[in-house]
Amino acid sequence: MKCSYNYHTHSHYCDGKGTLEDYIKEAIKAGLTDLGFSGHAPLPFDNSFSIKDDQYLDYCHEVNMLKEKYSGIINIHLGLEIDYIPGVHDDFRPLVEKGHLDYFIGSVHLINRDHGNDLWMIDGSKIERYDEGFRRLFGGDIKAGVKAFYEQTNEMILSQKPPIIGHFNKVEMNNKNRYFLPTDKWYQDLVNETLDIIQKSGCICEINTRGIYKMRYWDYYPSKSILKLMKERRIPVMAASDAHHPSEVALLLDEVHEYLNEIGYPKELIGFN
Ligand SMILES: [Zn+2]
Ligand SMILES: [Zn+2]
């Protein structure tokens, strides 16, 4: 089952490698018809991964220029992956309007408590940072930390209505079944509550393959067991590789479509329409 699109890609503008055009060339080689750029949105504090404020319009301009250049060959879409952090970065409109974006992905990578500035980074390859973060912010109470992750996600969906929700269960990645199991009752309750909210929102949930090809996790985000719950609720989904290197632009996307076909995911609920 061929997948012809990917709307989750980074580049040298944020924490990825390679130019925008490098990704386009690889996407054409892989037979994609639609490629979206979703650089990490500028944030109101210093960090190592997002587009810098003063480069944001350059990024938008270059994507738009490439959209023209490759018109008739591949459809290019201008987007961002925007972090939702309550009290710190919780209004996506200014960025969406300033860049005249075609779409955006809403993601939660950084968790805070009571709108504070102290943040727990759940993403990234360093497990020690995950462990240190929830100990610092949540006194070692993993349930409280994970609950805060899903509550932030819920708040983001309700207040920002992102067209696409990024890596639904990323909080599982660095846990690696050490502090909790995805089958724990309390965890399942949190997942189900968020799925109910997504179902009513009309947002699309991406199926992100990055954990598998980077060998940081053994399943997609969301995992196959969550995908079955999404199917029951008829939640729209789309494959995404979250590429940070041009060579990753189409990794495992066809496999996602094959899996969706295998479990009988309704065809009209797959892709970005
Ligand atoms: Zn992300
Ligand atoms: Zn990403």
The CATH superfamily is identified as: Metal-dependent hydrolases
Shape: globular
Q: What CATH architecture label applies?
A: Alpha-Beta Barrel
Largest sheet: 7 strands, parallel
Helical content stands at 25-40%
* Major sheet: arrangement of strands: 1-2-3-4-7-8-9
pLDDT below 50 for ≥5 consecutive residues: which ranges?
Answer: none
Bound molecules: zinc ion
Number of domains: 1
Q: Give the ordered list of helices and strands.
A: EHEHEHEEEHHEHEHHEH
Q: How much of the residues is beta strand, in percent?
A: 5-15%
Give the count of helical stretches.
9
Determine the mean pLDDT: 97
Task: Characterize the structure shown.
By secondary structure, the chain is of the alpha/beta class. It has a single domain (77-269), classed as TIM Barrel (Alpha-Beta Barrel). It has helices spanning 20-29, 56-69, 93-99, 127-138, 142-160, 185-201, 210-213, 224-232, 253-262, and strands at residues 5-6, 34-40, 75-83, 103-107, 110-111, 120-121, 164-165, 204-208, 237-240. The strands form two sheets. Strands 1-2-3-4-7-8-9 form a seven-stranded parallel sheet. Strands 5-6 form a two-stranded antiparallel ribbon. Strand 7 (164-165), helix 6 and strand 8 form a beta-alpha-beta unit. Helix 5 (142-160) packs parallel to helix 6 (185-201). The structure holds zinc ion (ZN) (2 copies).
